[in-house]
Amino acid sequence: MERAFDDEVLSPAGETAVDLSAVHAEHADFVWITLQRFGVARPDLEDAFQDVFIVIQRRIASFDWACPLTTWIFAVCRRVASTYRRRADRDRGRHEPLADELTDPGSSPEELVADHQAQARLDRMLDGMDLDRRAVFVMFEIEEMPCAEIAAMVGVPLGTVYSRLHAARKEIAKLLEKEQAFAARRGGR
């Protein structure tokens, strides 16, 4: 039986009410950033964001309060992002860069194109990466978060964060080597 959206939902024990508005207010930024970390395309971010909170609203009553709420929300984001990424894979070419992404008043046109190409290159590398490794790589290398904080947020042991980061770096290095070898072959023709 589907439950209509209301602001308060009883916890599994039934004694404490969960204020969904407060959950949204407290975790909205986290959800938005996490969906980006998982590679949800910009045109799909708002829909994915809404889908995450729909899942939260529907399933919070069965949430196991033994783990942190952010860990559970992270897992919900992972599943929603996976769905959107599969859909985007089917619709390749639909997601063109937005015009406002290429506007920086202090940069020359050549710098803007170079920045856009570098971002597109990184996006291609990250798109093929496992979602868990991708999230850890983005949080550590791009957002410069400490590994202990990543472990707490993702809900995995610190060693797992190090392992995923190592695997992601190795994968990026391989992709860069392939790209350089390809460029060298093309340049030699």
Description:
- The protein has 7 helices and 2 strands, in the order E-E-H-H-H-H-H-H-H.
- With 189 residues, it is mainly alpha-helical.
- The chain folds into 2 domains: 1-95, Rna Polymerase Sigma Factor, Chain: A (Orthogonal Bundle); 109-189, Winged helix-like DNA-binding domain superfamily/Winged helix DNA-binding domain (Arc Repressor Mutant, subunit A).
- It has a two-stranded antiparallel ribbon.
- Strand 1 and strand 2 form a beta hairpin.
- Helix 5 (131-142) crosses helix 7 (158-187).
- The longest helix has 30 residues, at 158-187.
- The termini are far apart.
- The model is unreliable at 1-12 and 94-102 (pLDDT under 50).
The gist of it:
The chain has 189 residues and is mainly alpha-helical. It has helices at 20-37, 45-59, 69-90, 109-127, 131-142, 147-154, 158-187; strands at residues 8-10, 17-19.
